[in-house]
Amino acid sequence: MKVFVIGIGLIGGSMAKDIKRSNPRAKIYGIDTNEVHLDEALALNIIDKKSSYGELNLAEVVIVSIPVNAMVLELPKILDIVNSNTLVFDAGSTKGNICRAVENHPNRSSFLACHPISGTEFSGPSAAIDKLFDRKANIICEVDKTNEDIHKKALDIFKQLGMRIRYMNPEAHDKHIAYVSHLSHISSFMLGKTVIEKEKNERDIFDMAGSGFESTVRLAKSSPAMWTPIFEQNKENVVDTLEEYIQNLEAFKEMLKNDDYDSIYNEMNNTNRIKEILNGIPQNKK
Amino acid sequence: MKVFVIGIGLIGGSMAKDIKRSNPRAKIYGIDTNEVHLDEALALNIIDKKSSYGELNLAEVVIVSIPVNAMVLELPKILDIVNSNTLVFDAGSTKGNICRAVENHPNRSSFLACHPISGTEFSGPSAAIDKLFDRKANIICEVDKTNEDIHKKALDIFKQLGMRIRYMNPEAHDKHIAYVSHLSHISSFMLGKTVIEKEKNERDIFDMAGSGFESTVRLAKSSPAMWTPIFEQNKENVVDTLEEYIQNLEAFKEMLKNDDYDSIYNEMNNTNRIKEILNGIPQNKK
């Protein structure tokens, strides 16, 4: 199986590792605008060969794991080159713009729109890890626009990766993911900013930070090059989530100013339900 | 060594476990208003004996790990009973109110005001774990008001627990801890609330949540009974941090509304410095 990974970073690299483990005879071709990453991926044995669009006609599977602004530009070009029986799937964190970018492409049926919900705050091929996708959700959009055999080929790969499949339309994906992913990133970045700004002259104050602070600012280590275009493509939903989040913070602040500690207690007590909700996620079940 | 732990939950219980391991001859007496917790602590071998204020005159060391609203009421009573050579220290997350509550107590010099920066989102004696305090910071306030021998006795215990000591005045503690701890809890609770409210009719949407969401809402599992009085006692500082956080979120939202993606990129890029800052914390060094 000839697998091309376009964008050989955390996601593409981790997929390549898992695919190689499950398919010892798979040959992984890496394509990346970053030559250093390509060399790293080769040295780390994540890819078997550096490649380019000129060889894409050889591909049986193409994984496109690049920032979503590049995705909308590159996917049509990739579909121009590959054969009609080649599976092309993406790993973009937005789905509306990406699906629209290829909706009228003559080779649309070779493409499966995916969002594997998995990652870490790190990036590049050195961040690639084994079993990153095990028990994680993979959201597939507009499956009816993908050729049935191609869809089946993708499901076989996702099964090897251990993923749980969810089908959803791109609009629902983009709306919900704004709440359960994009908002978390902004809350974390702005928390980090608030504290860095305040404590800029007192670096050693971070010595006082416990694991709770670390946990809430972890996502502020994420890549701006990856996240800026995600916020751009999902602008309307993200603005909505931010407005609701800010309203809730304002309300909490007012309760505090008004010494309304019963309401503060109740707010926190109601939100404690998040425990059961998180425990209900299959990936969290032991 | 007779050690009394008043409030035998996550913090008091974890301290008891470490002290017993380092001092096999230490006898741990547990005092708690929650009889179930006392029985649990006894069954878990965290304490050796259930006790009450009536026996506090026997104590060589008293650890007070109760919610900060109870702390300001109980500490003076405890200092009334113990001998003048008994070490009493607290583990409260605020320091101004607690120090003021005992400032004129005739036995003030037996007391050491402490904040061990360690914990998890869980509570109760079953949440107690070994080595919770290893390499963590312990903020000591108003050390000059504590008897020197008593201070030394405390340092010996903290050394056994593996803690790093920092000295600070209560006002500085309360101001900085609002940024690196209290704000994180509110941001997490309000993030949880925003998402639960939005998705209340679509519980299975949480299936889409990845590890990033989990990380940012982890603190929303925390105990409202513990946190409400912390916010009350540190109200002014917490309101300040909330105002700055909300301003930063508003500014981010405006950039997004204005399609100012260069500024969004720069904001995130600047905040990426949190990586180096977190790596600089001694507890994070390998």
UniProtKB/TrEMBL annotation, chains A, B:
Keywords recorded for this protein, A-Z: Oxidoreductase
Enzyme Commission number(s): 1.3.1.12
Prephenate/arogenate dehydrogenase domain boundaries: 1-286
Biological process, per Gene Ontology: tyrosine biosynthetic process
Gene3D superfamilies: 6-phosphogluconate dehydrogenase C-terminal like domain, NAD(P)-binding Rossmann-like Domain
Signal peptide span: none
Transmembrane segments: none
Regions annotated as coiled coil: none
Keyword Oxidoreductase recorded: yes
Keyword Oxidoreductase recorded: yes
Sample GO molecular function, one term: NAD+ binding
Record InterPro entries: 6-PGluconate_DH-like_C_sf, NAD(P)-bd_dom_sf, PDH_C, PDH_N, Preph/Arog_dehydrog, Prephen_DH
Top-level class of the enzyme under EC nomenclature: oxidoreductase
PANTHER family per record: PREPHENATE DEHYDROGENASE, PREPHENATE DEHYDROGENASE [NADP(+)]
Protein name, entry field: Prephenate dehydrogenase
Lineage, top ranks: Bacteria, Pseudomonadati, Bacteroidota, Flavobacteriia, Flavobacteriales
